[in-house]
Amino acid sequence: MSFRNVTHCIFDMDGLLLDTESLYTLAYSTVTQKYGKTYSWEHKAKIMGFKGNEAFQTIIDMLELPITAQEFEDTVAPIYQELFPKCNLLPGVEKLLQHLKKHDIPIALATSSSQESTEIKTQKWKHIFELFHHRVYGGSDPEVSQGKPHPDIFLIAAKRFPDNPDPLKCLVFEDSPNGVQAAISAKMQVVMVPDPQLPKNLITNPTLVLDSLEDFKPEDFGLPPFVA
Question: Is the pLDDT reported for residue 88 higher than 80?
């Protein structure tokens, strides 16, 4: 397969860099089970990449929960506070980010999480997240008017690099179907590292699919290769 050479990289966070998706499942299930409803992968796949309030409202609608999005958020917030500080990096993350930084490849974070939520999740990993030139927090950034699958967050992330690169020169790393669609809509190539449990029919049109970031070969996209 042949890919376009790129100059800049943009990374999602949850489920790609940080192993938080299982924690989200636990948190959301804790809420839905109070109302006798099961939060399944069918539901999860639809909201991955959504901003918080959009995710809460979508779950409420799908499961017909007798609560508001604000009530869902108020219930789940203390669960986040307990679970998220414990999250770990996923395989290959530190090696890849350190490699790109070493070779002066501009990198940015584009997460649907709010800045507050991100700071809770990254407490143990500040040295890793400081590698990014900038971070776009879709859940709290007023400039991100529409969340994934809309392209806003990736276009904004690109625009905030000092040289404002053409989207065609940006490579996105994602784990969710909504994130992949957002990158495609932004006219960017996208490497997808899906959760093994994600239904295969939801993996549509990424540039490349990998089992892990450990499998990524930078030279495939014109970036400096790892040195053995």
Answer: yes
